[in-house]
Amino acid sequence: VPHLTSGHKLAQCRETRSLGKGNAGYAASVGLCGKMVAVKYAAVACFSVPPSGVAERHRGTPAVVRARAAGTGSRLAGALINGGRRRRLISVCSSSGAPPRPEYVPNEISDPNYVRIFDTTLRDGEQSPGAALTKEEKVKIAKQLAALRVDIIEAGFPAASPDDLEAVRQIAKDVGNNVTDDGYVPVICGLSRAATKDIDAAWEAVRHAARPRIHTFIATSKIHMEDKLRMSPEKVVETAVNAVKYARSLGCEDVEFSPEDAGRSDPEFLYHILGEAIKAGATTLNIPDTVGICLPQEFGELIAGIKKNTPGAENVVISTHCQNDLGLSTANSLAGAAAGARQIECTINGIGERAGNASLEEVVMAMNLKTEQTGGLRNGIETTGIAQASRMVSNYTGMLVQPHKAIVGANAFAHESGIHQDGMLKNKRTYEIMSPETIGLSRKNEAGLVLGKLSGRHALGSKLVELGYEVTKEELNEVFKRFKDLADKKKIVTDEDIEALVTDEVFQPAMIWKLVDLQVMCGTLGLPTASVKLVGPDGVERVQSAVGTGPVDACYKAVDQIVQVPVELTEFGMNSVTEGIDALAVTRVSVSELDDTQNSLNPQTGDQQRVGFSGSGTSEDVVVAATAAYVNALNKLVGLRSKKSEMANGATVS
Length: 654
Description:
This protein is an alpha/beta fold. The chain contains 17 helices and 21 strands. The longest helix is centred in the last third of the chain and has 32 residues, at about 620-654.
C-alpha cells in the first residue's frame, strides 16, 4: 500500500483505484473532495477530511482526519471493525516538519527510522511485588498510555485469572477503539504462553480492539529447556510453531513471538526457531534479555545476528525486551535499535520483575536527544505526558519513584550546588540537557500562581491543569476541601502539597470502608492504644479499640477488628512531601491476603503467587496518613474480592 508522503499533494484529485497486495486485497486511495479510503477484502470505510484539514496540512500542521464512516463502512467508525476483520488506518502525512507516524502494518514499518514503543507496564510492570492494580486503575493507565501515543499497549496476561482477562477486554473495548482525529489508535496486546488455553484467553480479551495482537512465548535457553520446560529443542520448536499457527487460525493477523531468555540462548538455535515462527505467521519477533545479563555490545550483536541469519527476518519487525538486572536495560534497548530492532518494549518508571525493565521515559528521551548519533531513529511519543504517566503509575501501584531516577525523579531537575545554580541562572542549558516542560513539568519558580488560604477554587483548578491533572467537578470540590484545611495550617501550599492531595483524593480505589475518626494514646507511660471509627459499605459507623506495639500498630489492629479480612502487612513506607515541621506526610503500604484466595499466575514460572494490594494516605498527622493508607489497601483487596464473588455468582446463575 503506497503511503502519502511529503511529495503527495492532498489537493490533487484522482480516481479511486484498488491496489492489491498479494492475496490480501489491500487498497488505498485518495478520492475526490479530499476523501480518504481504506479498503481490505472489498470492505470500504470512508473518512472525510474537511477542507480546513487540507489547508492545515499544507501549512505543516497535522491534518485532521475525522472518524466519520460512510456507505458500507458506517459500522467501522472509530473501531474499523466489520465481521471481525481488521482494517488498516491510513495516516495523512505532513508536507513539512517532523515526519508523521507511519501507517500501521503488523509486520513492516514503512519508515526505516521509526521505532515502535511497546509499553508493558500493565503486564510485566504489574508483576512487580505489591503492584496489583484494579480493573479501573488499569483502564485509566491504558488511557494515559494512549495519551502518550504509545504504539502498542500490552494490557495484561489474560490467562492469569478471570479478572485479568476482563481488564484486558475492557481496555481493548475502551482504549483500543478510540481512534483520534489523525487516525492514531494503539494496538492492544495480550500475553500468552505457547498453550492453546492461554492463546484462547488472550484472543478473547484483545479481539474487541481495532488492532489486536497476541504475544506468545516459550523459553529457548538450555537451562530453561532442560530444567524448567523439560523439553527437547525439537519439541520447543514444534510447540512454538503450533502456538503461532493457532493464534493466526483464530483470525489474529498480528502475532508476536518471543524466545524467552534469548540473551542466554544458543544463537544458531535462535535463528532456527525464529525462522520457523516466521513461516508459521509471526509478524513481530521479540528478543528478550530475560535475566538482564547482556552488555550493550553483546545485545547489539545478538540483534544484528538475528537480522542477518534468520530466514525471513526481512519480513517481520524485530523487537527488544531488556530487563534491568545489571542496570543496562535502557542501554541494551538502544543498542538493539541501533542494530536494527524497530520495536522497544519498556515500562513507565522502569517497573517490572526483579530490577525492572527498560524505562519508557529513558528510552524515548535518549532517542529524541541523540537522534543524529542513533542514525536518525525516532518515535511517536507525546513526551509532555510522561510526568503525568509516571505519577499515575507510581500512585496506583504504590511503587515510589526514587528521587534520582532519570527523567522523572524528584531530583531530575533540581540544582543545589552553588556552581550549578550560578550556571542555571545564567543559562539553563549549562546543566540541563532537556527542560522539565518537555516531559510535562513546570518549574516551581516560574509557575506564577502561589496558593494560600485566601486562594479560591478557580485558582486551585488552574493550578491542577498546569500540573497536568484532569479532574471532575466533584473531585475538584473534594481536593479543594482538603486544600483549605491544609492552607489554614500552612502559609504557602506548594505544588508538591497539591499533588499529594490529588493523589489522596483522586488516585484511590472505590471507597468501601471510610476512615472517619481515630484517636491514639502512646508514650512511655502506658500501652499504645487506638480507637478507630469506620463507615462500612452499608453506611453504618463502627468503632473499635485496640492495643499495639505503637500507635500505628494499634490503629491497624482496630481496623482489622472492624473489616475482618486477615491480611499481612508486607510493605510500609512514609515520606514528607516538603521540608518543615508542617509538611504533609505520605504513607504507602502493601498488604496481601493470608487465605491465598487472591493468587495470580506468573506467566514465566507458571506458579501461583500472592497478590499484593497497595494503598496510600496523606495527612499532616503521620498516624492518620498511615491508617488511611491501610484502609485504602484493604478497600482495593475487598473490592476485588467482591467482584470475583459477583462474577462467580453470575456464572452459577447462567
